[in-house]
Amino acid sequence: MAARPIVSITRLSKSYRRGDQVVPVLRDITLTIPEGDFIALMGPSGSGKSTLLNLIAGIDKPDEGELLVDGEDITRLGEADLADWRASHVGFIFQFYNLMPVLTAFENVELPLLLTSLGKRDRKERVETALALVGLADRMEHYPNELSGGQQQRVAIARALITDPTLIVADEPTGDLDRKSAEEVLALLRRLNAEMGKTIIMVSHDGHAVLSARHVTHLEKGELIPEAQSSPGPSAQERRPG
Amino acid sequence: MYYLKLIFKNIFRHKLRSLLTMVGLVVAILAFGLLQTVVNAWYAGADMASANRLVTRNATSLVFSLPAYYRERIRSVDGVTAVAISNWFGGVYKDQTFKNFFATFAVDHDVFFDLYPEFKVKPDELLAFKRDQRGCMVGRLIADQHGFKVGDVIPMTSPIYGGGTWEFTVRGIYEPKDETTVTRQLYFHWDYLNEQMKKRFPKRAEFAGVFIVQIADGSRAAEISQAVDKEFRNSLAETLTETEKAFSLGFVAQTEAIVTAVRIVSFVVIIIIFAVVANTMAMTARERLAEYATLKALGFPPLFVAALIFGESVMISSLGGAIGIALTFPVAAFFKALMGTMFPVFYVNSHTVMMQAVAAASVGILAGVLPSYRAANVKIVDGLRYAG
Prior knowledge:
The structure holds 2 protein chains of 2 kinds.
Chain A: E1 5-18, E2 21-34, E3 38-42, H1 49-57, E4 64-69, E5 72-73, H2 79-89, E6 90-93, H3 105-110, H4 120-133, H5 149-161, E7 167-171, H6 179-196, E8 199-203, E9 215-220, E10 223-224
Helix pairs in contact in A: 4-5, 5-6
Chain B: H1 2-11, H2 15-42, H3 44-48, E1 53-58, E2 66-67, H4 70-75, E3 80-88, E4 103-107, H5 112-115, E5 119-120, H6 123-131, E6 135-139, H7 140-146, E7 153-156, E8 166-176, E9 185-189, H8 190-200, E10 207-208, E11 210-215, H9 221-231, E12 239-243, H10 244-253, H11 256-287, H12 289-297, H13 302-339, H14 350-377, H15 380-387
């Protein structure tokens, strides 16, 4: 039985205004992402892949079209509702990790849980589990500047999954990492997808990184390139084990 | 709790910047407090004034005296309970340098200290003073400054009354009721002065500089003042009666421009530090735009982001303000010691402390408003791009 769609995008368009000029970024995008998928969005700079990711993550709003995530049309949500929705449905992984430099690894991971009703003890338990999962149980009290780039990104991954979100969105997660650290991060993402069934949407330039995804979707000049013209990602069997 | 922790951690993120901003605040709040205290010291005489005391002087000018017999006529005015003559003697002790200056008055020894309950006098000393026509009472401030003790003889000259050296025997030292009471005066018998005038300059005898008029009901001050002045209308020496506070403020008014300048400078200091803190907070908010965008992306509401900056601004100002206020007391004490008796009453009052606290809080609040508004309203995608 096919997995139910977790993201359904229909005729989505987005443009930006630069002075008097209106610059279209996404045109008439229609895309469905099934639950438990690991999809990579690829494309040259300015193709609109990050914009598409931002729209799916609810940190930007489309001009037109419908965007359903887990059955909810997030384009209709107001700012406050959208913030609540993000807190419970989306885990973010950024290229530059975006950790709070004044907080320890533990506190950074704990941050999204402060928006939940969990008590201190439950939060601690969850954070310790998440940090152990990403292999940083011994670095909980370290500040970001005391960690390597790869370790910081693993803290960011722990922060992304701490609320058990519907989606994990990763914008160039390996873009700032060396090959070894990048491979560790990708292995972790593959594990999250394969073992925990997390739906991951990743934007990447890196041809090597996208090999970790189950599917690859190409964008060019704000439009999706039909499957036939784009290189398929590796099948689940082809993917290396985490 | 977490919010406060985050604010504290953010404050000490750029230690030098925060430290310098706080030092600026400390200096500004301290300077503001000191300048306000100087202004208050200027008004010390007026602040000490009682609502139940009036001063009657010559309507033409204070330099002209009034006939001493006015005393009885004033006393007969309805509402008046006591009257005392007070003559500015202009005594010079040792030399005319400022450090040796203190005020000297010839007063009606029988009633004068009854009119001034804020001067705490020992009954035996007061009695000794009343009995000795050449006796005097000195205030605690000048007694400490010059080491005057009961029994000491103070030689003085007077450019106003002449007559060579006048000698007064200290019969008592009066204490201030509280820190607002000025005790930088020497009081001696008006009778003694008058008798000397009769001998030396008969035409200058039987005159009073001013009359200190005690009234039973302070709320009737205006009415009684008019009644007193009416009593002497169309006489050779018409009177002008006003409250003691108004009389004292008349002296302050002569230096009003200086006081106003000091007051303006104290507020300018606060405006300058506001600009400094506002600049620091604007810079801080701009640097952390990506962090605020990240927090918003994670689901934190704009209000939380705004509160982070706003809280940081208020916290820095509060810390700087608190240290500034705390330092005002020892610095004011040092300043008072340095200035000798120039300001007989020089202390940091609760109103000044309140103004300092309000100034520090206002700086923190106003400096945080715009940066926190901007941070709260930054578009997440724009903020994240700022990081990249």
